[in-house]
Amino acid sequence: MPEPTRSYLPIRGGAVLPRLRLFCFPHAGGAASAYRRWLRDVPDGVEILPVQLPGRENRSTETPHTDLTTLVGELADALAAHLCVPYALVGNSLGALVATELARELARRGFPGPAHLVVAAAPPARRRDLAPVAGLPDAALLAAVHRRHGGIPPSSPPTRRSSR
């Protein structure tokens, strides 16, 4: 059986000693190669790590996961050794759901959270174990955010954009 990290991370690009690791999760049916072009244009200090799920490209003989919890658990095991520097999770469509749930699983395991979680083309799954907060009065909304997330971090002052 192949080593799990190598299976999930078949290609890498960018910084050898990165300031940020960018784990990229493709859309349903997509593969790590969807991010191959990113490897050519990677900014200094960033390492690109496209994630290859079972059943895709070089893992085509493996059975794809049908259970998100099992997949996310395997990903957390496989990627744990790479979380020693700040990291970001980027997901597209199904990859957005996988990245979101992976961030939650890593937090449950006590790992530092991602510096960034970028999801595209699909909203993260709605947690059914949390009461809705839409429509709450301000004080109740702030209390709910504090309970769920430890409060709201201070924001940076807005930057001015020049109009050209």
Q: What does it look like?
A:
With 164 residues, this protein is an alpha/beta fold. The chain has a single domain (4-127), classed as Rossmann fold (3-Layer(aba) Sandwich), CATH 3.40.50.1820. The chain has five helices and five strands; from the N terminus they run αββαβαβαβα. A five-stranded mixed beta sheet has the order 1-3-2-4-5. The longest helix has 15 residues, at 94-108. The mean pLDDT is 86.
* Count of alpha and pi helical runs: 5
Task: Examine the secondary-structure arrangement and name the CATH architecture.
Answer: 3-Layer(aba) Sandwich
The radius of gyration over CA amounts to 18 Å
The neighbouring-strand order within the major sheet is 1-3-2-4-5
Number of domains as seen in the coordinates: 1
- Along the chain, the helix and strand elements come as HEEHEHEHEH
Structural class: alpha/beta
CATH topology label? Rossmann fold
Unreliable spans: none
Say how many strands there are: 5
CATH superfamily membership: Alpha/Beta hydrolase fold, catalytic domain
Overall 3D form:
globular
- Mean pLDDT across the residues is 86
* Percent helix range: 25-40%
CATH class: Alpha Beta
Q: Strand count, sense and closure of the main sheet?
A: 5 strands, mixed
Task: Report the end-to-end length measured between terminal Cα atoms.
Answer: 56 Å
Give the DSSP E fraction (strand runs of 2 or more residues): 5-15%
